[in-house]
């Protein structure tokens, strides 16, 4: 009987894990099923481009994983029973149940309105393709001179506000930053960021907390009213609530607590990767939600699973950071080099060379997902021990 590996979510982390597992293990010993709500791979790091009118290439998951041994299931995950080792799905044909022997949880994250009144009703988000398309439609309908406010000045906010200002110089674009602008960057990084925003005509409101959003304005904590015909919310992400509803050990924010191999500390047959995982990095600091840590965590989990199933040895390689890559429009960018625990160092790249660097990173990330059987030697190994499954497949129950 094949050992059943189920991967939930086909973002950068989930897709990378599924492809790597298929390359590490023999198909006659292991089945790898990848479950995703959409049939296409979404380049999340480019959604600010999609929102401003750029068309992104179509990347059907079925084509990406053709011939790899990965079985794609287009379905929405509605529940995980970590004790019975089964996943409940909603498919086009109705509800279904998928049993597993090993689960890789990679359902990622979505935007967080942080409970701010009116944000969910009136603000636009860039955490998913649907949200980016809604913002794209709204921006296209705006007449010259209309105000746009981007709330949040993290990496997503900076990419969004510069992309919008560059694509629509006729709009009155503003950025609301809770703290100082780019206060986590080096002196060179902050200086360049300020120069780019000034050149693009972006009005920056530093140390500004937004406490309410209405259809045509945002209200700040000091009572200031910022007119806004389109409010873009980029204050952070939150994970899907499915893990919190399980018996898995999770944090108070719903992220699955894992060890250094991305294995659940409460359920050894479950691994969590990407934004859904609470993993500790250098300096005993939790890894932040990002592509920079998501893809390496997928590799870590896949290699650990393969090693454990085949009786091999897996080296627990600490995950670390090298840089923060920020696009500032299509022709400018910032590459801030950081320490292993994500603190800025003086060195940074800026300008056109940084834009090219960031573009290569984006292309490399999607290439690695789209070519899971390339770029590393094929070493499919036999499973030497298959842990007994406690789940019961519907077909087995019917028999």
UniProtKB/TrEMBL annotation:
<keyword id="KW-0285">Flavoprotein</keyword>
<dbReference type="InterPro" id="IPR036188">
    <property type="entry name" value="FAD/NAD-bd_sf"/>
</dbReference>
<feature type="domain" description="FAD/NAD(P)-binding">
    <location>
        <begin position="4"/>
        <end position="302"/>
    </location>
</feature>
<keyword id="KW-0274">FAD</keyword>
<protein>
    <submittedName>
        <fullName>Oxidoreductase</fullName>
    </submittedName>
</protein>
<dbReference type="GO" id="GO:0019646">
    <property type="term" value="P:aerobic electron transport chain"/>
</dbReference>
<dbReference type="GO" id="GO:0003955">
    <property type="term" value="F:NAD(P)H dehydrogenase (quinone) activity"/>
</dbReference>
<comment type="similarity">
    <text>Belongs to the NADH dehydrogenase family.</text>
</comment>
<dbReference type="Pfam" id="PF07992">
    <property type="entry name" value="Pyr_redox_2"/>
</dbReference>
<dbReference type="InterPro" id="IPR051169">
    <property type="entry name" value="NADH-Q_oxidoreductase"/>
</dbReference>
<dbReference type="InterPro" id="IPR023753">
    <property type="entry name" value="FAD/NAD-binding_dom"/>
</dbReference>
<keyword id="KW-0560">Oxidoreductase</keyword>
């Amino acid at each position: 009987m094949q050992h059943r590996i189920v991967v939930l979510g086909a973002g950068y982390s989930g897709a990378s894990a599924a492809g790597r597992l298929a390359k590490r293990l023999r198909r006659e010993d292991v089945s790898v099923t990848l479950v995703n709500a959409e049939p296409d791979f979404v380049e999340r790091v480019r959604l600010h481009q999609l929102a401003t009118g750029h068309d992104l290439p179509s990347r059907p998951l079925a084509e990406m994983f053709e011939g790899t041994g990965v079985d794609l299931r287009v379905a929405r995950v509605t529940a995980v029973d970590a004790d019975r080792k089964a996943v409940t799905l909603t498919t086009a044909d109705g509800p279904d149940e998928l049993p597993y022997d090993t689960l890789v949880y990679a359902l990622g994250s979505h935007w967080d309105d942080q409970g701010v009144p009116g944000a969910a009703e009136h603000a636009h988000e860039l955490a998913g393709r649907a949200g980016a398309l809604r913002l794209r439609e709204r921006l296209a309908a705006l007449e010259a001179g209309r105000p746009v406010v981007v709330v949040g000045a993290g990496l997503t906010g900076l990419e969004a506000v510069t992309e919008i200002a560059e694509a629509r110089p006729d709009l009155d674009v503003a950025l609301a930053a809770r703290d100082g602008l780019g206060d986590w960057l080096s002196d060179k990084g902050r200086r360049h960021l300020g120069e780019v925003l000034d050149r693009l005509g972006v009005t920056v409101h530093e140390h500004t907390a937004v406490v309410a959003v209405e259809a045509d304005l945002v209200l700040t904590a000091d009572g200031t009213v910022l007119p806004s015909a389109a409010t873009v919310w980029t204050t952070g992400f939150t994970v899907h609530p499915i893990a919190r509803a399980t018996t898995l050990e999770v944090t108070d924010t719903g992220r699955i607590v894992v060890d250094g191999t991305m294995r659940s500390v409460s359920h050894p047959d479950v691994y969590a990767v990407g934004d859904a995982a609470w993993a500790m990095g250098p300096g005993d600091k939790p890894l932040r939600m990002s592509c920079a840590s998501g893809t390496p965590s997928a590799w870590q989990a896949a290699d650990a699973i393969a090693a454990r199933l085949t009786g091999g040895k897996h080296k627990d390689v600490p995950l670390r950071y090298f840089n923060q890559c920020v696009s500032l429009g299509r022709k400018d960018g910032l590459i801030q080099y950081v320490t292993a625990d994500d603190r800025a160092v003086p060195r940074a790249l800026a300008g056109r060379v940084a834009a090219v660097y960031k573009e290569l990173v984006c292309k490399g990330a999607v290439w690695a997902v789209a070519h899971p059987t390339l770029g590393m030697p094929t070493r499919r190994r036999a499973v030497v021990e298959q842990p007994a499954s406690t789940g019961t497949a519907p077909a087995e129950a019917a028999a």
